[in-house]
Write a structure and sequence with these properties.
Layout (H helix, E strand, L loop, with lengths): L4 E6 L3 E5 L2 E5 L5 E5 L2 E9 L11 E7 L4 E7 L4 E3 L3 H12 L7 E3 L5 H8 L4 H7 L22 H8 L5 H13 L3 H16 L4 H15 L10 H24 L18 H15 L2 E3 H18 L23 E3 L13
Parallel strand pairs: 1-7, 4-9, 10-11
Antiparallel strand pairs: 1-4, 2-3, 2-5, 5-6, 7-8
Helix pairs in contact: 6-7, 6-8, 8-10
InterPro entries: AAR2 (IPR007946), AAR2_C (IPR033648), AAR2_C_sf (IPR038514), Aar2_N (IPR033647), AAR2_N_sf (IPR038516)
Protein name: Protein AAR2 homolog
Family: Belongs to the AAR2 family.
Length: 346
């Protein structure tokens, strides 16, 4: 049995993306084959015949099963992909199994699958069903233009109402009330939101991602006391998100990463301030989890090397890189957690 799935799409004069891959397709294109099982994000933008103008991106998550055929058909009137009736879908499935469409299907680039897994390893089918909007479509075209100043998600309302409260208490409250105490659910929503705004260009998703990032980086005690494992995993997620965003921003001008422009990564951006404060926090901590320290170093190097950001605190020695025999270095604790991720070697 073929372990990979197939996505059938009848479109023309369209940019089609799946995960970190983008295709410019013509009339012979009928879909994508060799899709690994698991969650994926599909996004597209229709163009005029001359290819000079494009509509806002529309995206949706799918969970592909082994040998599954997922069918979407272009609705000319609504200018979007729609599901087809069950009987019609079955006919397409049979045609795929008999290889009738094979020469019209573009292959999923399996060499890029690892990049996608790093961006989506906490996302599952149940997560998609829990978070996706009604109808499943993610597009800035259906979002309110006045959304910026009006918090509407539970996370944003909590932040708006408790700006002066303890971030540690707020984090614990959000984890318990919104995620049933599951750290991985929070990280899954962080990944979902990032993918939706990076590739789907959703403003609402960006605001949700920013709220989560601001909440976590605003905690001064949890990273070193009660939630070291969460923060080690969180920094790992952020590392791969920014690594992918920077890579696509530099090398793929047709990708969905246009939100990551120069001003987004300027030295006075909210991210720079958050990172600077957090790195100083880790530098001054007396005890730091080993995984957290490793991924923090990796993140700091990524930002310094790719963006030229500087985080020196008026010192000739970078406090993030202590010598082994430095008496002022923080104590590194290795927590016995089989699910912990080890930072890759540089």
């Amino acid at each position: 049995m073929n372990p990979h799935g197939t996505l059938i799409m009848y479109v023309c004069h369209t940019l089609i993306g799946i995960d970190t891959q983008m295709f410019s397709v013509g009339p012979d294109f009928k879909g994508i084959k060799m899709i690994p099982p698991g969650p994926h994000f599909v996004y597209y933008s229709s163009s005029t015949r001359d290819g000079k103008e494009f509509s806002p991106i529309i995206g949706f998550f799918v969970d592909a099963g082994p040998s599954e055929v997922i069918v979407r058909k272009w609705d000319q009137q609504e200018e979007r992909l729609v599901k087809v009736p069950e009987e019609e879908e079955e006919r397409y499935c049979q045609a795929v199994r008999s290889l009738e469409f094979d020469r019209h299907l573009g292959p999923y680039n399996l060499s890029q699958y690892g990049d996608w897994k790093q961006l989506s390893n906490y996302i599952t089918k149940s997560i998609i069903q829990r978070i996706e909007p009604i109808g499943g479509e993610i597009t800035v075209a259906s979002e309110s233009t006045m959304r910026v100043n009006t918090p509407s998600t539970m996370m944003e309302k909590a932040l708006d109402e408790q700006l002066n409260s303890s971030r540690h208490k707020l984090l614990e409250s959000v984890l318990l009330e919104d995620y049933g105490g599951s750290e991985d659910l929070l990280l899954a929503e962080l990944q979902f939101a990032y993918i939706a705004f990076l590739m789907g260009q959703s403003l609402e998703a960006f605001l949700q991602w920013k709220s989560l990032v601001s909440l976590l980086f605003g905690c001064t005690e949890a990273p070193f006391r009660t939630r070291s494992r969460l923060f080690a995993k969180f920094i790992r997620v952020i590392y791969y998100q920014l690594k992918q965003g920077l890579q696509k921003d530099c090398s793929d001008t047709n990708s969905g990463s246009t939100l990551l422009d120069d001003s987004w990564f300027s030295a006075d951006s909210f991210l720079h301030r958050l990172f600077k404060d957090f790195f100083l926090l880790v530098q001054d901590a007396s005890v730091v989890d080993g995984d957290l320290l490793s991924w923090t170093r990796k993140l700091k190097e990524l930002l310094e090397n790719n963006l030229g950001w500087e985080f020196q605190q008026n010192s000739a020695v970078d406090g993030m890189y202590f010598e082994d025999d430095d008496e002022f270095a923080p104590v590194v604790e290795m927590l016995d957690d089989p699910s912990s991720s080890v930072a890759p070697s540089v």
